[in-house]
């Protein structure tokens, strides 16, 4: 005799009562509110997406300045540059 207590044997068919098998189950999901964005907000979203795709640095101008520095067409006072950088970063704290 094969007695299994607390276990389900694969050979035993599972029989459910008719009230369970004929019941249609509806998921308990709350109603979802729909929100419509204003045209101003849509415009701001579009502008933000455009800004996210652009670079903060104009690499063409960087390359142009680099070429001018290499060619000696521009001279830089490093003391003035360092002072300007310190002023900028100290003012933006």
TrEMBL record:
Superkingdom classification of source: Bacteria
Assigned protein family: Belongs to the FlgM family.
Gene assigned in the entry: flgM
Single GO BP term: negative regulation of DNA-templated transcription
Entry keywords, A to Z: Bacterial flagellum biogenesis, Cell projection, Cilium, Flagellum, Repressor, Transcription, Transcription regulation
Protein name: Negative regulator of flagellin synthesis
Domain Anti-sigma-28 factor FlgM C-terminal: 34-87
Role summary: Responsible for the coupling of flagellin expression to flagellar assembly by preventing expression of the flagellin genes when a component of the middle class of proteins is defective. It negatively regulates flagellar genes by inhibiting the activity of FliA by directly binding to FliA.
């Amino acid at each position: 005799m094969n007695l299994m207590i607390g276990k389900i044997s694969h050979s035993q068919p599972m029989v459910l009562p008719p009230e369970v098998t004929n019941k249609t189950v509806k998921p308990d999901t709350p109603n979802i509110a729909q929100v419509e964005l204003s045209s101003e907000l849509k415009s701001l979203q579009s502008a933000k997406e455009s800004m996210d795709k652009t670079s903060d640095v104009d690499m063409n101008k960087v390359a142009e300045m680099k070429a001018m520095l290499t060619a000696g067409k521009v001279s830089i006072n490093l003391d003035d540059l360092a002072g300007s950088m310190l002023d900028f970063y100290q003012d933006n704290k």
